[in-house]
From TrEMBL:
Gene3D superfamilies: CorA soluble domain-like (3.30.460.20), Magnesium transport protein CorA, transmembrane region (1.20.58.340). It is a multi-pass membrane protein. It holds the Pfam family CorA. Keywords: Cell membrane, Ion transport, Magnesium, Membrane, Transmembrane, Transmembrane helix, Transport. One of its GO terms (cellular component) is plasma membrane. GO terms for molecular function: cobalt ion binding; cobalt ion transmembrane transporter activity; magnesium ion binding; magnesium ion transmembrane transporter activity. Mediates influx of magnesium ions. CDD domains: TmCorA-like_1 (cd12828). Belongs to the CorA metal ion transporter (MIT) (TC 1.A.35) family. This is Magnesium transport protein CorA. It is found in: Cell membrane; Membrane. The gene is corA. It comes from Methanohalophilus halophilus.
Length: 342
């Protein structure tokens, strides 16, 4: 297929796409859920109103293509939106900015990190956002929009773009908190009683951290590209917020690197713990074997089948040998304990 061919690449995560249209300014707010694309084509947007269209579900390529025609989005951008394997990036075009970023969720039961792609198109007076499935990620932003005095209603769509990305980055902190709790649990298992299942959990979590790092590492450059944008779509007042968002992205990346180092250290700790347990077992077996060496020697001597041995015909020979063997065992146990070998 040629460049710009629209094909959905990824899983179908919703039955039917949900299209939400929000028109707003400081005095006006109107929300249309499951808005028909034909109505949007014929809708005349007021110049003093800002538009936010959110699409949950990407498998209907006709819907994405129609939105691209309405807002003049290049087919290559639409192709990237439908290909849900994109790495985070920012691309500037003549009339809009395209941003793709990944939102991450930690599945505690499966000990795995799941990710969804979110694409954002920032235009002169509109913003388009595309999600693979419907989530509560932008719910708080919708609630903030209901307050006329809030910054989202007062400021432009560039501030709304910042708010959407900030919501995604904030969700990373929740993800890292869940992963941190899992790492603490694994550390407790390592100290108390590690087993092969613990080792498997560490390997799985370490593999997920690699996926997490691959999704988050480009985030810093994505936000930095928005700060450096010269298209005029991002105002200087919003640049202050983007700098703060850039700092948050660095904190998230540093936390991921810290967790990766902790997991590597936990693998070493597991090997050391298992080796120490094996050493304790070997020490105990060695002590037992050492105690039985003289006892076996004595039993071997009196087990020889010679006719003329001094103690064989002695009435108290057996009790004397048993007492002697017991005395040797007690003396050796006392010596080992005094040396803290036991």
């Amino acid at each position: 297929m040629g460049p710009g061919t629209l094909v959905h690449v990824g899983d179908k995560k919703v039955k039917e796409p949900i299209l939400t249209l929000i028109e707003y300014n400081e005095e006006y707010l109107e929300v249309h859920v499951n808005q028909d694309i034909d109505i949007i084509k014929n809708l005349e947007f007021a110049e003093d109103r800002k538009i936010w269209i959110n699409v949950d579900g990407l498998h209907q390529t006709e819907l994405i293509e129609s939105l691209g025609e309405v807002f003049g989005v290049h087919p290559l951008v639409l192709e990237d939106i439908l290909n849900t394997t994109q790495r985070p990036k920012t691309e500037s075009y003549e009339d809009y900015i395209y941003v793709t970023i990944r939102t991450l969720f930690y599945e505690r039961l499966e000990n795995a990190v799941d990710s969804d792609q979110i694409s954002i198109i920032l235009g002169n007076n509109f913003i388009l956002s595309f999600q693979e499935m419907r989530t509560d990620l932008f719910k708080k932003i919708s609630q903030r929009m209901e307050r006329p005095a809030g910054n989202i209603r007062k400021k432009g769509v560039d501030y709304l773009t910042y708010s959407l990305i900030d919501s995604i980055v904030d969700n990373y902190y929740l993800l890292l908190e869940d992963i941190g709790e899992e790492i603490e649990r694994l550390e407790d298992e390592l100290i108390k009683e590690p087993d092969p299942a613990t080792l498997q959990s560490i390997h799985e979590l370490k593999r997920e951290m690699i996926i997490l790092r691959r999704s988050l590492w480009p985030l810093r450059e994505t936000i930095a590209s928005l700060q450096r944008d010269e298209s005029g779509l991002i105002k200087e007042s919003t640049g202050i917020y983007l700098r703060d968002l850039y700092d948050h992205s660095i904190q998230v990346i540093e936390a991921v690197e810290t967790y990766r180092e902790m997991l590597s250290g936990m693998l070493d700790l597991y090997i050391s713990t298992v080796s120490n347990r094996m050493n304790e077992v070997m020490k105990l077996l060695t002590i037992i074997a050492t105690i039985f060496i003289p006892l076996t020697f004595i039993a071997g001597i009196y087990g020889m089948n010679f006719d003329y041995m001094p103690e064989l015909k002695w009435e108290w020979g057996y009790p004397a040998v048993m007492i002697f063997m017991t005395t040797i065992s007690v003396i050796m146990l006392y010596y080992f304990k005094k040396k803290t070998w036991l």
